[in-house]
Amino acid sequence: MDLGLPTPLFPGNNGRGMERSITVEDLLRDREAILHLENLSPDTGLRRKITQATPGSPGLALAGFMARIRGGRVQVFGETEMAFLASLDPAEAAERLRAFFHHEIPVVFVTKGLEVPPWFLEAAKEYKIPVFRTTLSTGLFFQLLNPYLEAALAPTVSIHGSLADVYGVGLLFVGQSGIGKSECVLDLVERGHRLVADDLVFATRRGNDIIIGYGHELQRHHMEIRGVGIIDVRALFGIRAIRQQKRIEVVVQLEVWDDQRDYNRTGLEEEEAVILGVSLPKVTVPLNPGKNITVISEVVAMNHLLKYAGVDSAREFDQRMREALQVTRKYLEEDYE
Amino acid sequence: MSEVHQVKAASVEVVNRAGVHARPAAALVKAAGRFRSEIHVEKDGLRVNAKSIMGVLMLAAEQGSTLRFTAVGPDAEEALATLTELVRRGFEEE
Fold first, then answer.
1. Three-state DSSP class for A88?
2. I need a surface site. Which of A49, A67, A84, B40 has the fewest CB within 10 A?
3. Between chains, do A199 and B46 touch, taking CB under 8 Å as contact?
4. Can you tell me the ipTM of this complex?
């Protein structure tokens, strides 16, 4: 089951979520002070788009190997690059830079407060690429820039579901409209758990295996309860009842009870749900009218915590049962009566 | 889940002055809820379930913006016709 709403109708997203980009201006607004940036090209426009989350360094590209350059990636010139360029004849160096700048480079950073020769700035200006200098070392610069770019450009999908923090475990409730996702989350909030977002959850991937869920900025912890209307959970239950974002750890699929379907009776088989290519454990809970899903949700969360603490109740119980059966067989094997 | 249905799509412009605020959103969600098909509505790259009032509200669809509906299911075409008509008539506001 893939949960992320594929949106193939939206141009350029390949069904993997919304394509994201930020402008150089966005990056400056959010990180200028932290990255100790000095603008060396004041006349250059800052509307260029950054689309890649990993910054690059030209490296071998300056030696003429251009095959691996990706457009949309910020480029960091460290001591190696600047020293290599300085070792060349300025005309030759500028020519190599131009060949490199040709590849849709959104912005160039020079680290360690290194001297930037005028032909460098001229070449950048020709391609309208802004150049910034930082006093930070290349390593530290990458360390501070990476998490920002990753967060700003991470692949994101929207999911029709509700996300709550239950005992510190992010439970994402999904299921058809009217099944009772919001009511379930409201019940959980009343029992002291925390709402992240109801009805519309954005999920974004951090690194390879972490999915972070959060709500729309306009929504601000409001939810719709059938028969009551739109309520403000923060106003009703206070600040302790809400959370801005939460890692999604377990997907709880709510379904109308179906006699024909086999539900998981032992917990030995694990179902999974996929969001943005990341597999998450999934629990399918069948509902019939009046069933208390809240306590079941708490148990789902606690069971998840228990598994992380090294206790897999279903498996251990199964193991003990198997051992018990083993003893019986041995006893019978020795019984030659 | 044995039946296979094609995705049907239709776009419509929001005409009522106040845009899709709570009342029109409720009308839209109510209308969508009458159909068995899975219906989504999209604006500016944000795609939400048309049966979810919070989702539809978060589109923040103002007058003049375009909503694109997609539907999959046994009554998809009827659903699209009903929903686009509802938007076209300005949710019978004003």
1. coil
2. A67
3. no
4. 0.84
Residue A251: CB atoms within 10 Å? 26
Phi-psi region at B73: left, alpha or beta (left = phi > 0; alpha = psi -120 to 50)? left
Helices (H) and strands (E) in chain A, counts: 9, 18
Contact A132, A40 (CB under 8 A): yes
End-to-end CA distance of chain A: 55
Domain B8-92, CATH number (from 3.20.20.150, 3.40.1190.20, 2.40.30.20, 3.30.1340.10) = 3.30.1340.10
How many angstroms separate the CA atoms of B67 and B86, rounded?
A: 12
**pLDDT of B3 over the 50 cut:** yes
Stretches where chain A sits below pLDDT 70 are 1-19, 327-337
Q: Which strands make up the sheet holding B38-43, listed edge to edge?
A: B8-13, B66-72, B38-43, B46-49
Taking an 8 Å cut-off on Cβ atoms, the answer to whether A5 and B51 are in contact is no
Q: Residue B33: enclosing H or E segment and its boundaries?
A: helix B22-33
Give A49: exposed, middle or buried? Use CB within 10 Å, 0-12, 13-18, 19+: middle
First to last CA, chain B: 42
Closest Cα in chain A to B35: A177
**Which letter does DSSP use for residue A59 in this model?**
G
Structure tokens at A20: 């994201």
Q: At B93, is the pLDDT very low, low, confident or very high (cuts 50, 70, 90)?
A: low
Q: How far is B76 from chain A (nearest CA, A)?
A: 17
Domains with residue ranges and CATH for chain A: 22-152 (3.40.1390.20), 158-315 (3.40.50.300)
Q: For residue A319, with 0-12 CB atoms within 10 Å meaning exposed, 13-18 middle and 19 or more buried, which class applies?
A: exposed
- What single DSSP character describes residue A240? G
Angle at B88 between CA B79 and CA B49, to 5 degrees: 45
* Secondary structure of residue A289 in the 3-state scheme: coil
CB A166 within 8 A of CB A190: no
Identify all chain B residues contacting A178, using CB atoms and an 8 Å cutoff: 33, 51
In whole angstroms, give the CA distance from residue A132 to residue A39.
Answer: 5
Name the helix (H) or strand (E) containing B8: strand B8-13
Which residue of B23, B28, B58, B70 to mutate against A (max A Cβ within 10 Å)? B58
